[in-house]
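Class prep. Sample record?

___
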Amino acid sequence: MYRLLSLPFLDRNFRTIILGYRTFPDATTEGQVDDLVLAVHYFINKYGGADGSGGPVVLMGHSSGAHISMLAAMQGRLPTVDALIAASGVYDIERHYKLEEKMGVSEISPMAAANGFTVENLRKNSPSRLGTSLPLTFPSVLLIHGGLDVLAPPQNSKDFHKILCEAPKPREVTMPVGKLTKSCRLDILDEVGHNDLVLEACLGGKTQTNICDWIDSTIEL
């Protein structure tokens, strides 16, 4: 399904790569972040990136991909990414684990296992717990979420958006070529579910329109 996400961006003449990362039991959350960081570095080295030689870099993740991408950004490990689109993400995985318990899926969900079944790791790997300050390399962010998402309720993005907006901002630095003012925007899309958001991003609809409009307003192409 995610391969179809390349279509609207290819139509706009973006160089597009669909990244994958190992999932549990082949990797823990830390290993998944490592995979993402290595993949982004490979892309930058091959095609150029935030220095302007290959244009700005936009990273997009959905669901667990949004969590892993945001965790890497909050750790300051994505210095060459200009903008991050986090779709239907979970940013406090300790709280989400309690939701999974309530839904009766915690024992079959790989989330707790990927975090060693410890509260300490759930907290350590929650982007919301890292929001006391933002790294200098933190990119512009679009948090986009379906209003009808029951698997990862939109309150996740609402709460995390507030954390980002209230976090101390890093000192002013010279932006790489292609980057405009750092920003954080929240879009909650009515009548859109967890997987609907991906389908709309692929095939058209308000999700795709909002994403493309945000890229145009944030990145100088």
